[in-house]
Amino acid sequence: MAGLNYKHLRYFWMVAKTGSIASAAAKLHLTPQSISGQLTEFAEVLGVELFRRVGRNLEVTETGRRILSYAEEIFSAGDELMDLVKDKSLTTAMLFRVGCADSVSKMIACRLLEPAMQLGEPVKMVCREGRLASLIADLAIHKLDLVIADRSLPRQMSVRGYSHLLGESSLTAFAAPALIEQIGSSFPACLNGAPVLLPGEDFAIHQRVLHWMEKNNVHPRVVGEFDDSAMMKAFGHAGAGVFFAPTVIAAQISEQYRVAVLGHIDTLVEQVYAITTERRISHPAAVAISAMARKQLFT
User: Fold this and answer.
1) Phi-psi bin for 167: left (phi > 0), alpha (psi -120 to 50), beta?
2) Is the same domain home to 254 and 209?
3) How many structural domains is the chain composed of?
4) Over the stretch 78-99, which tens digit does the pLDDT of each residue have?
């Protein structure tokens, strides 16, 4: 079969959207006969039926619906491309599209991204936050230049990518001063029976914290699990429970959320990765992020 004829695909897409050849022809400024002929040729090349007639209108077949879903993505991407070309800001600013997994502390993500905004040339940063799987999917089709995550690229994802370790940090336990007065400060024994807030199951440290508790014979009351680390800290500020966060941002956490350090856990480590589709980081903004992480944030 010959390569895909995108002109034929657009005619099919327009007929499917409008429901008739006449309506599609009007929108495309072509004659109905021309559209009809091109559709017939397209169906013959593909070897499938694209439409069935229902009254005076055309209805897309099941196979046609599957082809239509691809057509929607193709022409949507084309529209995005045209918007990108027309965006005058791109002529003066370098575009940097980064995804942050929601399992990464927002404080750490913010500090990591700061160097990208301080380059010698203007940068337009587009930042997306979400589940790691969704961000990796966007990275694979080049909608993102880099993904910041709390783990390396999962092996089960059939995506060709590379994980660059930016750094790692031990964990620290925090609690509101009033809660510390209630449970005491003899860490980690004070956690027995104490209310504890845990990061959600999507966080790489979720299971590590549970294993640490079991290994140290610590039995707290888990009163909440959070997919949003900032919300977990907010509940910690309100005295709802003890929570854990990277030691490298302990000072900022204590100041912003008015909580105190209850204890450090050197055996528990949280890692932060930059995931890219290239073996060596080359985007200037990503290079700046990597350099800052290794020389300042995670020293």
Assistant:
1) left
2) yes
3) 3
4) 888 787 777 655 556 788 899 9
